[in-house]
Amino acid sequence: MRIFLTTLTISFFYALTAAFFSITHWTFGDFVYSFVMAFGFILIPLFICVFFFHFLLTIYRWTKRQPTLITQILTLWFVYNLTSLLISLPDFIRHQNNNGYLPYKSFAEYFMTNMLEEFINATIFAIAIPLLDTFFRVKFIKPDTSQKY
């Protein structure tokens, strides 16, 4: 449940922020369209990242260790960047090989044009996921400590 709650909360706030920052002279329909597109754009990579985060926490729980916050952040940052790279790499290859697409001079130019936003998102999400997960675990999802006799 925490996986879905964390993923949906971060996706909702990301989409809401993106839609508000991109408003100029839009109608309500344009705002809803921007919100839905941003929400759908971020949902799959974020779900993969949060799922891997909870898998990592389960492995640490089995070994009876607690990962440090910096370990969690760096692992999430790496996983999110790897996911976005694997999603964006076919687009880069398509731009280099098809005549109908604008060819890039290098991968660095493609990175600055298309993937810099994902790199910044990975940094923000890597910090937000452990903090939000801890918040949900402490405030909303309380373990059942009652004893049955």
Protein topology:
Elements: H1 2-21, H2 28-62, H3 69-97, H4 107-139
Helix pairs in contact: 1-2, 1-4, 2-3, 3-4
General description of the model:
The protein is mostly helical. It has one domain (2-139). Helix content is 79%, strand content 0%. The chain has 4 helices and no strands. It has helices at residues 2-21, 28-62, 69-97, 107-139. The radius of gyration is 19 Å and the shape is globular. The two termini are 28 Å apart.
- Report helical residue fraction: over 70%
Q: What is the global morphology?
A: globular
Uncertain runs: none
Secondary-structure element string: HHHH
In the residues, how many domains can be counted?
1
Task: Report the sheet-strand fraction.
Answer: under 5%
**Termini Cα gap:** 28 Å
Radius of gyration: 19 Å
Number of helices: 4
Structural class by helix and strand composition: mainly alpha
Average pLDDT, all residues: 82
Please give the largest β-sheet: none
Number of strands: 0
What's a concise summary of this model?
The protein has helices spanning 2-21, 28-62, 69-97, 107-139. With 149 residues, the protein is mostly helical. Helix 1 (2-21) packs across helix 4 and helix 2 (28-62) crosses helix 3 (69-97).
Keywords for this entry:
149 residues, mainly alpha, 4 helices, globular
